[in-house]
Amino acid sequence: MILWVVMAVLAVATSLSVLVPLYRGRRPAVGEGQAALAIYKDQLGEVERDFARGVIGAEEAGAARTEIARRAIKADAAPLEVPTAAGTADQPRRVAAVVAVLAVPLFAVGLYLLLGSPQLPDRPLAARLDGPLEAADLPALVARVETHLAASPNDGQGWALIAPVYLKTGRNDDAVRAFSNAIRLLGPTAEREADLGDAIMRASQGMVTEDARLAFQKASELDPAAVKPRFFLAVGLTQQGARDQATAAWHALLQGAPDDAPWVPVARQALASLDQPVPPGPSAAEVDAASKMTPEQRQAMISGMVDQLAARLQANPADADGWARLIQSYMVLGRKEDATVALARARTALAGQADRLAAVEAAARSSGLIE
């Protein structure tokens, strides 16, 4: 209601700013004739002074006196006010302006009342954030929520609102923080715990770390029928190389699943990969012998074996011996950057397994990658 009153006042003020000047007639020209006569008298005096000094001749002085006298007579005979005919001529223009100034806002208000929804409340921020990510105002909405959370960090609903947006837009570390705060302030749910595990896994480059596993485990305990946490728990078992446990987890997940579920083909492929034997990768001695060949011979012999080992570790990152061999192979071939990446992946995959990680660290140290 207050908004409508303010708008009405602004409309009236705007209309008056246009209408008042239109109805303000020209002020009477009182004293204009006397002022003009005084000017002409000064001009006559100037002409006489110029003639006396010899600046102008008698003929020029006479012509100037005649012209000044003609103007003075005309000014003295002029009326002191503007004729009323001019005001009459402006009357249609004033009427048209009044109609335009008043009709336009009245028409706009009437059209809005007819077609608009003045009683409809604003769309909630949560609904707008839940819309398509391509919405032009998404960055502004996210910034607004972030500003609010900076001032009110204990607003659990705010964290729960922004967390999925972070996850969808790839801000994985921010998503981890937001889901953690939402769980801390609002309490755990199966969906929040599963989304937290998802965010942790994405932030860890697809690896189901121990923190991610714990989140998925909590989600599964809260809702044993939920597919998402069970799916990623099976992924984690596969990454750890726990073949029997992973096989059982995939079978349990696929049991009774609809064939058109989007995750079913992925689960079947993962299960099939567990049933296939994987040949071992090259040993450090084999790679060292190959390094003594010509570049062409070395490339032909080693590239296939190293790629095969890297692929196997992608599917089974819990193989500590495999990581050690891969790092040593990269270092023998002079591919230090690849060895550094492999060591980082091994540290992520073997987090919490100090004895197995120690073997990888030892291989990296012996090959000269780290000190």
Could you walk me through the main structural features you see in this protein, from its secondary elements to its overall organization?
The chain is mainly alpha-helical and 371 residues long. It has 19 helices and no strands. It is elongated, with a radius of gyration of 45 Å.
Structural class: mainly alpha
Helix content: over 70%
Give me the Rg, rounded.
45 Å
Mean pLDDT across every amino acid position: 74
Helix count, DSSP H or I runs of 4 or more residues: 19
Low-confidence stretches: 26-30, 79-87
Q: Beta fraction of the residues?
A: under 5%
Report how far the terminal alpha carbons are from each other. 73 Å
Tally the beta strands: 0
The string of secondary-structure elements, in order, is: HHHHHHHHHHHHHHHHHHH
Largest sheet: none
What global shape is seen? elongated
Give the gist of this structure.
With 371 residues, this protein is an all-alpha fold. 74% of the residues lie in helices and 0% in strands.
Features:
371 residues; mainly alpha
What does the secondary structure layout of this molecule look like, with pairings?
Elements lengths: L1 H22 L8 H21 L5 H20 L6 H6 L1 H25 L9 H5 L8 H14 L4 H13 L3 H15 L3 H14 L6 H13 L4 H14 L2 H12 L9 H11 L9 H7 L4 H21 L4 H13 L3 H14 L4 H13 L5
Helix pairs in contact: 1-5, 2-3, 7-8, 8-9, 9-10, 10-11, 11-12, 12-13, 13-14, 16-17, 17-18, 17-19, 18-19
